[in-house]
Amino acid sequence: MAVITVAMGLISGERRRRKAAASLSAIDFVRSSFASRLARGDPMDELLIGVVEALDNAFKLDAAELWLHEGGELRRTASNPRRDDAVLNVTPAEESIIANAGVSGLAWAKVWVPALLEGRAETPLRIAPVSVSGRLLGMIVIERSWRGDALAADADATLQELAREVAAGLNKQRLYAALHISLEQLRRQAEELQASRARIVVAADAERRRIERDLHDGAQQYLVAIAVKARLIQQLARTDPAGGLALTQDLVRDVESALDELRTLAQGIYPPLLSSAGLAEALAAACRRTPIHVRLEADSVGRYQPELEAAVYYSCLEALQNASKHAGERASATLRLWEEGSFLLFEVDDNGAGFDLDGTAPGAGLTNMRDRLGAVGGTLRIESGPDAGTNVHGAVPTRASTQQEHM
Prior knowledge:
CATH class of the largest domain: Alpha Beta
CATH topology of the largest domain: Beta-Lactamase
Largest sheet: 5 strands, antiparallel
Helix content: 55-70%
Shape: elongated
Structural class: alpha+beta
CATH superfamily of the largest domain: GAF domain
């Protein structure tokens, strides 16, 4: 009996040692090889296959699977032996239940993930959720018919720790991917901002040259003529008063023409109606000047900072001009202007010819619209298609502090 007792103790100790060694081999794989290869950037699919192979070797399983969760779906991503890909749909409530469950078996699976058991025999299995802070990332599933009654005792502790290690690796990888996407977006935005600033500088220089040219060719010519006639009137006042009086009438007409020229130039820089009455009135006047019929809906907007109003006004004006040029003679358009939350939004929608967005390079007009709106933190979206009309949609942040009262 003493010999038998000693032998039984040795056998039991050997089994515990092998079980501990098997558990450590699976966990060590994830802690060391999995983590280091993940840091090196090895493909995730290969790493997950290594996890299920380590489990199979550790516990002599019939099968080991690793399912990943994304967008309401659990997808079988790695399995040993190899099995076809499969997808399980889970509701948000089921996601929460699975994420917060412990290592479970057949009875639990029949209630919460019955689709997992389709096509499987009543083979003993264990399911370990892979989750971080109650968020489901996936689950590990193992099966073993040999000594199936002992599978829970053999593997549950290992599965629980293994699931934690895999969850940490998956979460790190997803955070890194999200960070990479954010950095790429920031890089593109920085490049677009730099290009936009360069275009704004070029446009500002061109606008200054245009104003200088218009002043030189227009108002300045009137003012030069006025100065010349004023000197002649001074001379004629002593020698020919009647001639000087007649020349005075010409002088008055020249002054009125100069004033008209200056008003026209000033309107090209900043519309007086926009400054005095706001967007609704200025856009109503613009709609009346547009060759095609335009219906305006802008009853609910107030007053905003001048640069914001100018950006929206000129963007709408550009969209109306494009519709007049390209939509067709029988086309009509609707211009909507409204405030929603902390954004001022506008939409110019026409029922004209439209165009192929993918096959058409953006012109100077669309580029200017994006630059104007981008300068005040806004965005622009264009939707169009052949014979489907064109929709121009813009949004600029108003921020409560920017809204002003204008007298």
